[in-house]
Specification:
binds manganese (II) ion, alpha/beta, 14 helices, TIM Barrel, binds alpha-D-psicofuranose
Length: 387
């Protein structure tokens, strides 16, 4: 089913896992704990490595500072490498400290802005130790009431703060700026959309680009258009994949709307996001509030792989000729044929040929690992969002 060039893309596919997906998470109503939840960043890495072991799709793990702060990052790096994975994106956190109540990089008080900048310097120091390439910045900055802040002045301060952070980046390091249209601020957000993120990173230089979190758009937004546009502008740095029904739900990617995931990945493919020289990073940003975490992550990366395989089947030449000749239904039919093809048996064969389980999800469940870690990981404090 897959040609050599398709297999090459499948072979190279790498989806970074968020360390926080393995810790307990929840809503403002309740955080449920689960047996076997990691008690430290080392155990989180072990769980991420398990996902990679079963799928061959997840060779790196994103860390969140300070949640994943350890005394010896070198030791964490070696631990990861021994388990066959690397430490990836470093996520900063300026949303859990009292001083950031009215903002961080945009705050009206220079001292608070400097504290937020210093936090990012600390993250870059961590990157130097872990060998991470990307610094991901998502800000909770914004306001709740009209008149509360000077919106424009905050854009100016944001630029200045980002500039200071940008200047600290090493030659092989990048900054990715993530946008989100609301929450925790409800009236305005300082980086609400791709346009604002683009304007801000464009003003910095080539090492800054945009992170597109699929859950951070208003309902009905044509996300695949944004993907095509950012790739065209060469500023699509990374994806945070997840899915949503209502807000920033952080559910399993491809669970809410598989066809939307297909359309997004199609634009990635058509616009060079899978080319050998592409610099687009693919990550998950999810939380598993009620389901088991490791199998939740396994299902997630498999969903991305399955949609990618469907996309690769699209007859691009046929599509192009249907498009230029105005064959609306023919063009649409080509995409739908790809989407409606069942690629699962071919992917199972592909896995088997690489020494991976044909059905990673079932194989993990049958492995007894979940029961094993539940038995082993007793005592200590389970890690969770915010700890
Ligand atoms: C908050 O919305 C958020 O989910 C952002 O998407 C970040 O990527 C993530 O937290 C980690 O900081
Ligand atoms: Mn995100």
């Amino acid at each position: 089913m897959f040609t050599e060039s398709m297999t090459k893309i499948l072979e190279a596919q790498a989806i970074e896992l968020p360390s926080w997906a393995f810790g307990n998470s929840g809503t403002r109503f309740k955080v449920f704990t689960t047996p076997g939840t990691p008690r430290n960043p080392f155990e989180k890495i072990e769980d991420a490595a398990t996902v990679n072991e079963y799928t061959g799709l997840a060779p790196s793990v994103a860390l969140h500072i300070p949640w994943d702060k350890v005394d010896d990052f070198q030791a964490l790096k070696i631990h990861a490498e021994n388990l066959g994975v690397n430490l990836g994106t470093i996520n900063s956190n300026t949303f859990q400290d009292d001083q950031y109540r009215f903002g961080s990089l945009t705050h009206v008080d220079k001292k608070v802005r400097q504290a937020a900048i210093d936090h990012h310097f600390e993250c870059i120091d961590v990157m130097d130790k872990t060998g991470s390439q990307d610094l991901k910045i998502w800000l909770a900055d914004g306001s709740n009431y009209p008149g509360q802040v000077n919106i424009r002045a905050r854009q100016d301060r944001l630029h200045e703060s980002l500039q200071a952070i940008y200047e600290r980046l090493g030659d092989n390091q990048r900054m990715v700026l993530e946008y989100k249209f609301f929450e925790p601020a409800f009236y305005h957000t300082d980086v609400p959309d791709w346009g604002t993120a683009y304007v801000q990173v464009q003003a910095l230089g080539d090492k800054a680009s945009v992170c597109l979190d699929t859950g951070h758009h208003a309902p009905g937004t044509n996300i695949e258009f944004i993907v095509a546009q950012l790739l065209r502008l060469r500023r699509l740095g990374s994806f945070d994949f997840n899915s949503r029904f209502y807000a920033d739900d952080d559910l399993i990617v491809g669970a809410a709307d598989p066809f939307q995931l297909f359309r997004i990945i199609f634009e990635v493919y058509r616009n060079g996001g899978f080319d050998e020289d592409s610099t687009v990073a693919f990550m998950l940003d999810q939380c598993h509030n009620i389901e088991d975490k490791i199998p939740g992550q396994i299902r997630s990366v498999l969903n991305v792989q399955e949609m990618t395989a469907k996309v690769l089947l699209a007859d691009l030449a046929g599509l192009e000729s249907a498009e230029v000749s105005g064959d609306v239904l023919g063009a649409n039919g080509i995409l739908m044929d790809a989407y409606n093809t069942d690629v699962r048996p071919a992917l199972a064969d592909w896995r088997e040929a690489r020494g991976l389980p044909r059905e990673p999800f079932d194989a993990y469940r049958a492995s007894g690992r979940l029961e094993k870690i539940a038995k082993e990981r007793v005592g200590g404090q389970q890690m969770g969002w915010g700890a």
